[in-house]
Each structure stands twice: as C-alpha cells, then as structure tokens.
Design brief:
This protein is mostly helical. It has helices spanning 6-10, 18-32, 36-58, 91-94, 102-119, 122-148, 151-175, 180-184, 188-206; strands at 81-83, 98-100. It has two domains: 6-79; 98-206, no CATH class.
Amino acid sequence: MSQQNPYEQLGVAQDATFEEIQAAKQRVIAQVGSDRQLQDNVEAAYDAILMERLKLRQQGKIKVPDGIRFPEKLPNVVPKFTSLSGPNSPSWVRDTFERPDRSQILTTSGVYAALLAAILVPTIASSALPTIIAFGIGFCLYFVNQKQRRFKRAVVGSLAAAIVGTAIAAVMVNYLHMPTEQLIGIHGEVFAGVLVLVMLWAVSSFTK
C-alpha cells in the first residue's frame, strides 16, 4: 500500500469529490480493522489528498466546501514496530512477532527488571512470589493488548509465557537436577519465577 499514491490507497479517482474521498477513507479504515499501522497509512493518504486540494484551492483552481478542514502539515507516519521476520516467512510468523522500538523495549525492560530485582530479594520472594508473578502476567497482558487491542491474544500469550517458563524450570530442576542454589544462589521456586518473568518480558516486547 505504501508504494501507491494517496488516491490509489483510498481507491478513488483524482477528480473524486470530497464526499467520495471521505467515504472512501471510512471504507478503507473499516477494511483494515484494528491494525494501527494500516490505519495511520490511510489517515496519511487522506491528509495528503487534502494538502494537495488545499494547494489547488490557494491557487484558485478548485473550490472547497466550507466544512472541509485541512491538516496544518502532513504527519510523518513512523511505524512503532517492524517485523522480526523476512518477507518469505509464514504469515503466522509475520502476524505474531515484531521488533519493538526503543521506547517500547525500555518500558518493558524497566518493568520486568524491577520485578526481577524484587523476586531476587529473599525476604520478598519468600512471602510475595505469587504476587510478583501475578503482576508480571498482568503487565504482559497490558503491554500486548496495547499494541493491537487483541485481548484474547494477549491473554493467551501471557498465560503461555507463564506456563512455558514454569515448565522449563521444572524440567531443569526436577528432571535434570540442576543445583540452582549452588550455581546461582537461588532455590528452585525463585528460579522458576525468574524464568517466568523472562518469558513474560519476551512476549511483552516481541509479540503483537
């Protein structure tokens, strides 16, 4: 869509009326659904057409209805996320994983670093480990849902991260008999909590 001109993006002719352009914008917005990047692209195309019409009006070449409001300047549409996958990757991979921008990764990393710091304090972990994990799941749910407003996907991703982290820790401690207290100074339950938080951070940061 980004390689098309604004009229092609909205599916209208260059001599389309303002009413037709506005109707086309609403139609395309409805078609792209909750995808914020595509919505921003549609809005940018609409604003570009209005800017072009504004120039033509200032040159006296067209008459513009009084109800039309022109943007002061064309917004710079910068996607907040870019795909972690290549163009030939399966569609489910492209639809699931993203590369966060700097502010996003700093936010999620800061939140989970604080939770990890709390869970590694023995006096806190002994009494508040389930609460810390619950906060971690809640933050993961919030971060993922904020991206594309897909609440069910956010719930599934958050729970999956918690389950996978717990399962990995159980295998390492119970079946591989990894001596976590001797190696890193924390007992098995805290080690499981650390893995769960790391998994939740990864889901919060790198999934849609």
